[in-house]
Amino acid sequence: MGSTIPRAHCLSLCRRDGAVCGMTVRGMMLFREFASSPRDLDRSMGARESLDDKLAAIRALRGQPLTHEQKSELRRRISDRSNLVVAAAAAFAGENTLVELTKDLETAFDRFMVNPVKDDKLCRAKIAIVQALDRMENQTSDLFLKAATHVQFEPVWAGTEDSAPPLRAAAVIALARVEGSRCLPLLVDALADPAKDVRVAAALALGAVGTESAGLVLRLKIRLGDRDPDVLSDCLGGLLTIDPKENLPIVTEFLDPSNEAACEAAAMALGKSRLPEALDPLKRCWQLCHSDELGQHLLLAIAILRRPAATDYLVERVASEPEPIASAALSTLRIFKDDPRLRERIERLVDERESPKLRAEFDRHFR
């Protein structure tokens, strides 16, 4: 073969007098000879990694000790233009507490705040970064404060919608860890946020702060009320975290079956508290309840107390109550299906009752 024509020359196009001149026939033949396969052609054109390739490369790092080269590769992923790649890399860094990547994560967060609607749809990268830094117990309150007050309206059908509530919620939790009672003003504002997720996070954060002032904020909130029972439940739970003895009577005030939403919220707060003193109020409320749905929630609250006396109470319901109530109690006991001794005890009771319905219920939940 004669002298080699450079690829750049073969591929060049020039304009002369408005006419486009392409490669010569000889140049085309040489290029085809050089790029004899699709793989060679991809290499010659500098093929880029696809989004799927980048995400797969991050997943491939799981479950193995990271080398210095792999950490460098992860750092490169955090600087990627794609918010999905950055979100995956940040999540991996957080799960593995790679604190040496902190600065890279902070830089990426600032980058996605410049043009957030275009570059970070649904706040995916920013959420993952905040969660990762929080898992690393990072003390960068400035970043968390930016995230806690960020609002990002994105176009949706017939208008716009704020996509940042999960980001604000994650940041509120992180700020409570870093700042403690110093972030009370922000937590008060968050407790009035339009988004339920942020109000829930604020209630949890106030409970974690644990001061008398935080308790008073929660107490005011439950008196004012909230349109979402989950927010009320976490406010009541926060009160029980701060001072169980003083606040138990306040929480039990809401155990009124005539107000099912508030009653359910209080029951879940009492159940999650795991306080032994919560059992008797829950039992009394269940005995007064005439709603099957609310009754199921009350039995579940008793179950998640995870106290021996509470478990015994539910087992007794399986043994002695009419079939519908026994079935409801049996359903709540499924959270103990991995306890072999309790499972055997319940199965004996089910066998003694000789009820096909209870047998089917047991097999569904305990097998």
Task: Report on the architecture of this protein.
The chain has 367 residues and is mainly α. Among the domains are: 47 residues, no CATH class; 95 residues; 57 residues. It is 67% helix and 4% strand. The chain has 23 helices and 4 strands. Helix 5 packs across helix 6, helix 12 packs antiparallel against helix 13 and helix 17 packs parallel to helix 19.
Please count the beta strands (DSSP E, at least 2 residues each). 4
Total of helices: 23
Strands side by side in the biggest sheet = 1-2
**Strand percent estimate:** under 5%
Helical amount among residues, as a percent range? 55-70%
Using the CA coordinates, give the radius of gyration. 30 Å
What kind of sheet is the major sheet? 2 strands, antiparallel
Distance between the termini: 74 Å
List keywords for this structure.
single chain; 367 residues; mainly alpha; two-stranded antiparallel ribbon; 23 helices; 67% helix; 4% strand; globular; disordered N terminus
Topology of this structure?
Layout: H1 7-11, E1 14-16, E2 19-21, H2 25-34, H3 38-44, H4 51-59, H5 68-78, H6 83-95, H7 102-112, H8 116-119, H9 124-135, H10 141-148, E3 153-156, E4 159-162, H11 165-179, H12 184-190, H13 196-209, H14 212-224, H15 229-242, H16 244-252, H17 260-273, H18 279-288, H19 292-304, H20 308-320, H21 323-332, H22 340-353, H23 356-366
Antiparallel strand pairs: 1-2, 3-4
